[in-house]
Amino acid sequence: MGGVVSPVLANLFMHYAFDGWMQREFPRIPFERYVDDVVVHCATERQARLVQDVITRRLAGLGLEVHPTKTRIVYCKDDDRRGSQEHESFDFLGYTFRPRLSKSKHGKHFVNFSPAVSRPAKQAMGKAIRSWHLPRRSDKTLDDLAAMFNPIIRGWINYYGRFYRSGLYPLLRHINWGLVRWAMRKFKGLRGHKHRAQRWLVGVARRQPDLFAHWRLVRPDGWTMGAR
């Protein structure tokens, strides 16, 4: 019971300790909080330092402290803010926010401060894919594998693919190569023939393009559908 209730109580406490207090003390400064991770949006460095100091004292008064290394002021560099600061990126909810080259609907390139899947999130997804041991599941059919892993793949795409989905492409290619190796162990005629197994998988994808959730983005032949 304690393991279930404690996060709820902690969240309720943070709502009192931080959310409500911020809305009273700094009603014009927007912020986001997830559990104990918080992003506060300030207009200037001076304002950011003031708010950081006040928040630190507020939490200290409640027996809490800000994280010594994660807490920092980040300069959101883009085409309108072209200076340089020590910190120009941060991670939040599995995304890394940093300056990125973007393309407008008119085809013009510009620098935008925007999110994409973070390295720790990609490492976690890569570890999950390796744990599937796709090549060893020769007792399963391709339909079985799709049924087993599509919910996970679809969830990754829906969440991390909202911004710069190309950051997911290497992981999705890794799944395809796992399926190629699965085919090499599944079918005697494909054993030891990687390219032949890949051509076989490409043929399956052409006949059943929706079999795997990621084939709409990265096909077994390596082609990707769009850059973003």
Report on the structure:
The protein is α+β, with helices and mostly antiparallel strands and 228 residues long. 46% of the residues lie in helices and 13% in strands. The protein has 6 helices and 5 strands. The protein has helices at 2-25, 45-61, 119-132, 142-160, 169-186, 194-207, and strands at 31-34, 37-40, 90-92, 95-103, 109-117. The longest helix has 24 residues, at 2-25.
Could you list some keywords that capture this structure?
13% strand, 228 residues, two-stranded antiparallel sheet, 46% helix, three-stranded antiparallel sheet, elongated, alpha+beta
Helices, strands, pairings?
Blueprint: H1 2-25, E1 31-34, E2 37-40, H2 45-61, E3 90-92, E4 95-103, E5 109-117, H3 119-132, H4 142-160, H5 169-186, H6 194-207
Helix pairs in contact: 5-6
Describe the largest sheet. Answer: 3 strands, antiparallel
| Low-confidence sequence ranges | none
Shape: elongated
Report mean pLDDT, rounded to a whole number.
93
Order of helices and strands: HEEHEEEHHHH
How are strands sequenced across the largest beta sheet? 3-4-5
Rounded to an integer in angstroms, the radius of gyration calculated over CA atoms is 23 Å
The number of distinct helices, counting runs of at least 4 residues, comes to 6
Into which percent range does the helicity of residues fall?
40-55%
DSSP summary, beta strand count: 5
Distance between the termini: 43 Å
> What percentage of amino acids are in beta strands?
5-15%
Sheet/helix structural class: alpha+beta
